[in-house]
Amino acid sequence: MSAGTEVYDDTNATELATFDVSHWWYRSKAALIATALRRTEPRRRERGRLVDIGGGSGGVTTMLGWPLDRVILGEGNRALVSEARRRHSLAAVRTSVRQVPLADGAAEVVCLLDVIEHFRDPVAVLTEAARVLAPGGRLVVNVPAHQWLWSAFDEQVGHVRRYTRPALRAELASAGFEPLLLSHVFSWLVLPMWLKRKVLSGGGAEIGHDQSSPTIDAAARALTSAERALLGRASLPIGSSVLCVATRGRR
After folding, report:
1. Residue 1 domain flag
2. Within 13 Å and on the Cβ side, how many CA atoms surround 36?
3. Among 2, 48, 108, 234, whose Cα sits 20 to 30 Å from the Cα of 67?
4. Positive or negative torsion for Cα 204, 77, 101, 92
5. In a domain, 18, yes or no
6. pLDDT tens-place string over residues 166-176
7. Closest to 181 (Cα-Cα) out of 243, 236, 117
8. CA–CA separation, 81 vs 78, rounded Å?
């Protein structure tokens, strides 16, 4: 995949579709995002559409706790769009993240989950998300954290950057957003990720879908549950990802 096109090429798209529901990382990611959505949900507001832009094959999308008849998935890879329809019965459309075929204000929630780090102009992607978002709606962004965790993995999957919280906040502000919740997540994953990718890999690139077992699954569930208890109540200073829920600010 070349940076600045779409998020998934045919090679890593096939691997994603295989693991997007079964692997502990995707399940933990979905659980954290679902918690962030609940903690920031406005009172007495009817749930509208959730639009997941760059949502891949839809496994994470289906685990967000949103009514699936109110979910739209947008994805640039044709095979992943087909998988989202076939495996998850999602309303999925093939689209560029920078030109989404929806009307202004069509979405109550827009998700960009591990998307903007693939683009040299992430503000353009965020601005398009702002156009699709209804007044008072929420944007959910998840990005990889800490440039010092950069490895051959990032190059393999087409990342342009890893983020700090201030860097993400600045890009969101440029697109007119203000954070409601902004925290690192996967704090417990930083040390094993650093060891695996920086010390033990020998410079090779591994996506890490092979790193799974019943023991790892159980540990991930427990550690994710602990982070979910803190999410929205405390901002973690370290983690392999940064998660933000934002709304349109006054400009």
Report:
1. no
2. 32
3. 234
4. negative
5. yes
6. 999 999 999 99
7. 243
8. 5
